[in-house]
């Protein structure tokens, strides 16, 4: 028997880091995602894993599969994983892998998938898991998930820009934030307020500009990404990182809105690949 699963990545519109400290956030699923297929084959006597793409993440998939086998030992067959979500760049790739593998191996068990997520990514906010599991736009606040409807116009001309691999892993940045909470509350409040403004229907571009300023103040938008977003703002648009960002190196994926052609031109001038939502 063959089972298949598709799980989307995520795009955070508002709430990065704020969600860690109880502020609300808004996220939507991406069209990019993780496809998994499991072909049962008792003759294999094991779970064989085939990764079609970036094999450096194969050990992580093996850890997910091992966690699944703790729940169901007789997972004999071939697991094939194919992902077009940029790995490690703020679109929830690790969480999407967990959900996609758990679903195809164990079925639609949210509790089990969440347990694996919390085991492999301790201290996470739950925000990524919530939107990826839901597969629909959500408002997330203190662990509570509320499905929401967003205007189709909100992201019609939006562009994703790949600024490169972050210089620090997400767990390191999260620990850094937790250790500075008293000093960053004002910026976290601004990010939470951006979520409320977006829910009230304020223009996304205006909200995004203030959100970006707060992320800069948090110290997770490296210079090259700041320069990119400044150029987009000078052209009448707006942009923000959609993941943990970084202190050095790339900032992962930036979401930009405005004149699509102009945004792509600005990104191309910096040799940064772009993607449609």
Describe this entry's structure for a reader:
The protein has two domains: 2-147, Ribosomal Protein S5, domain 2 (2-Layer Sandwich); 159-276, Alpha-Beta Plaits (2-Layer Sandwich). It is α+β, with helices and mostly antiparallel strands and 277 residues long. The longest helix is centred in the C-terminal third of the chain and has 19 residues, at 181-199. The chain has helices at 58-71, 93-106, 110-120, 127-134, 170-178, 181-199, 204-218, 223-234, 260-269, and strands at 2-14, 25-40, 47-52, 77-83, 138-141, 144-147, 159-162, 238-241, 253-257, 274-276. Strands 1, 2, 3, 4, 5 and 6 form a six-stranded mixed sheet that branches. A four-stranded antiparallel sheet has the order 8-9-7-10. It has nine helices and ten strands. Helix 1 (58-71) links the parallel strand 3 (47-52) and strand 4 (77-83). The chain is globular and about 60 Å long.
Observed structural traits:
277 residues, alpha+beta, Ribosomal Protein S5, domain 2, Alpha-Beta Plaits, 2 domains, six-stranded mixed β-sheet, 9 helices, 24% strand, kinase, lipid metabolism, lipid biosynthesis
């Amino acid at each position: 028997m063959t089972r298949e699963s598709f799980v989307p990545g995520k795009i955070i519109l508002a709430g990065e880091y704020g969600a860690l400290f109880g502020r609300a956030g808004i996220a939507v699923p991406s069209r990019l995602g993780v496809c998994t297929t499991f072909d049962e084959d008792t003759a294999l006597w094991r779970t064989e894993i085939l990764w079609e793409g970036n094999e450096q993440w194969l050990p992580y998939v093996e850890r997910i599969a091992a966690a699944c086998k703790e729940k169901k030992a007789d997972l004999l067959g071939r697991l094939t994983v194919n992902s077009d979500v940029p790995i490690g760049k703020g679109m929830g790739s690790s969480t999407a892998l967990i959900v996609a593998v758990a679903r195809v191996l164990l079925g639609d068990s949210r509790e089990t998938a969440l347990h694996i997520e919390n085991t492999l990514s301790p201290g996470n906010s739950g925000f990524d898991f919530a939107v990826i599991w839901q597969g629909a736009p959500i408002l997330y606040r203190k662990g509570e998930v509320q499905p929401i409807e967003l205007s189709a116009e909100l992201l019609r001309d939006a562009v994703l820009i790949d600024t490169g691999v972050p210089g620090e892993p997400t767990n390191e940045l999260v620990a850094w934030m937790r250790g500075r909470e008293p000093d960053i509350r004002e910026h976290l409040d601004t990010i939470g307020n951006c979520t409320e403004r977006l829910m009230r229907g304020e223009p996304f571009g205006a909200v995004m500009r203030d959100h970006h300023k707060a992320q800069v103040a948090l110290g997770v938008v490296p210079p090259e990404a700041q320069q990119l977003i400044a150029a987009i703002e000078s052209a009448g648009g707006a942009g923000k990182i959609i993941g943990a960002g970084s202190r050095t190196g790339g900032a992962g994926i930036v979401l930009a809105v405005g004149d699509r052609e102009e945004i792509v031109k600005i990104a191309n001038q910096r040799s940064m690949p772009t993607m449609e939502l």
